[in-house]
Amino acid sequence: MSLAAYYAVTWMQDEATEIARGLRHRDPEVLDRLIEQYQHRLFRYLVYLTGNRTAAEDLFQETWVRVLERGRQYDGKSKFETWLFAIARHLLIDSLRRKSAASLDALRDPEEGTAPFEPAAEEPSAYEALAGREQEARVQVAIAQVPAVYREVLMLRFQEDLKLEEIADVVDAPVSTVKSRLYRGLEAIRQALQGGRA
Amino acid sequence: MTQDVHARARHLMDAARVEGISAAEQAWLRQHLEDCSDCSRAEAGTRHALETLRWMAVNADPGMVRATRLQVRMRAQELDEARSRSLLLWASGVLTTVVGMVTLPLLWSGFAWLGEKLSLPNGVWQFVFVGAWFLPAMVIAVLLGQRSRWARQAGHALPPRRVK
What we know:
The complex is a heterodimer.
Chain A: H1 3-24, H2 28-50, H3 53-69, H4 80-100, H5 126-129, H6 134-145, H7 148-158, H8 164-171, H9 175-197
Helix pairs in contact in A: 2-3, 2-4, 2-7, 3-4, 4-8, 6-9, 7-9, 8-9
Chain B: H1 3-18, H2 23-35, H3 37-55, H4 62-117, H5 122-157
Helix pairs in contact in B: 1-2, 2-3, 4-5
């Protein structure tokens, strides 16, 4: 390990420990800083996961309140964002359960026998709304066509740059399942892009 | 070129992104992409899609973030207050227990004396003594139980409360 990498790892561990300490004491300053630091990443994750901006906003608030309430459970050994995304994901599953009696099984792969997790959008898709340029819009539409269960891991991998093990922690699945979802997600993007071009 | 070759190329393109591929595989893939325009186009499309995904701006609304901060601070205050109440209750519980233990022999003698004065059977004054001695602890237990129920109800009631 190079000296720079060593210092980077040490700095990240120190930061995680600091966050864990702040959360243990429910330090409002630490929470403010975390909200400031992770607001866009968490919101983007929720928008892509739900496909609905309003639902994402509700979950955004609930997630931070849950971070406050469960802060003592974060031990600082893993990245904070991994823990944060896992909380957001669990809240989404809980809210789906409350609304439509959907269960955790709804997040299983389509090829594992149940329907893919795909919350119904009640408003124009967040992806379409975000479309600025034609090319970007085409890509966004293609990504929106990817089943959410695959889209989620694609986002965590290629947007958030999480490692396979970290994604596995967030989605509460083995690394092999994460890999398989990534492969299927990439294939789905390719097919959606080809479909869009045709 | 057979279909297998293209399938292998697509698999390697994905594998390179998911878990990495060997140097030999990279060389093979590079060569194949130079020779095959279809696979090359597919690779460019996927790369572009993932780059777009990475840089697409989905920003949280500042008003919503402010509201979240406010809600978190309010909840933190509620939790602090609940913690203070809980500590107070526990402290009084501990104090009551200590005082109870210290005064136990004295109370026992007092009840025995009273039982004798009133000519009560031993079983009766002893029963009254046990009731009196456990009463404070029972009251505190009921209060603590009630407090936990309130806390649970507050926790369940929280999600629908959205601060704008």
